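An example makes the point: we let one protein speak, the chain in one-letter code, the fold tokenised, and here it is:
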Amino acid sequence: MVKKLVLIRHGSSEWNEKNLFTGWVDVKLSETGKKEAANAGKLLAESGIKPDILFTSRLSRAIQTANLALERADRLFIDVERSWRLNERHYGDLQGKNKADALEKFGPELFKTYRRSYDIPPPVIADDSDFSQANDERYADLDPSALPKTESLKLVIDRMLPFWQDRIAKELIQDKTVLVVAHGNSLRGLYKHLTGMSDDSITEFNIPTGIPLVFELDDNLKPVKEPYYLDPEAAAAGAAAVAAQGQKK
């Protein structure tokens, strides 16, 4: 029997609609995002996939998405675990800045490097920035040295993989159907780990908001087939929209 892992990128947030770098800043879903989340639950219900356990980040937009999706799928009763290791990539000093303004300031090449490079992080955020998490109570249990001030995708993968190995993989091995509701970069990192996608390829790979992405895995947690979206056409359009971010004010 194959093991099922379902990934959902949170619905569109208030800052997505303002075209701002968000990262670890805790913003809520927009009205569009709430509809996307509910639709994700509808797609789950129609597919017959029934998650047994949910993992989310500690950020509200992922938590809201999970709650709305599970409510629509009639699975609100399942166990839940949250971890900072599933948080979005920390965008450093870019957090809170408009993407179009950053594109104009840094130019296309450096902008793309900061936004999509595999191993080059943006500039570090200052602790006294309005968009820093230095004193955020969500992370009071973390050693301050573990709290990022900027990250590349590689660093996201480095901090995400221990949680994959220690928690998510263990539930899959026990034949649980696992739902992970998180963020573009933490889910891209997990996708790269599971598929073996190259460092170069992952920089061009986009995960759309609010469309469940299903992995069917063998006993070694290797994909037995290509991962698939529950709404492929909407996923293709959504991925294209993600790729175009930064072009508008």
Summary: The chain has one domain: 3-243. Residues 3-243 form a domain with the Rossmann fold fold (CATH 3.40.50.1240).
